[in-house]
Amino acid sequence: LDVGRRRCSACDDECVEFVRELAEDVERGRHAEHRAHRAVRAGAEHADELRIDAAALDVPRTRLFGRVVVPAGVDRASCALRLERVGGEEREFEQPLIAMSFYEDDVDRLHWDAGPRRTGTYLATFTGLQHRQVVQAQSPGETEIELVIPPLVQVSVQVFDRSNGERIEADDLQWSDGAIDGIDTNMLSPAAYDGRDYTFLAPRGAVELECSKAGYLPAHETHELAGSQAVIRIDLARATALRLLVREGEAALDVGSEFMSAVRMTTEDGESAQLVDLYWSDTEGVYYLASAGRYRLDFPQLQGFEPIAPRPVELRAGETLELILTPVRR
Question: How far is it, in rounded angstroms, from Cα 24 to Cα 47?
Answer without folding.
Answer: 21
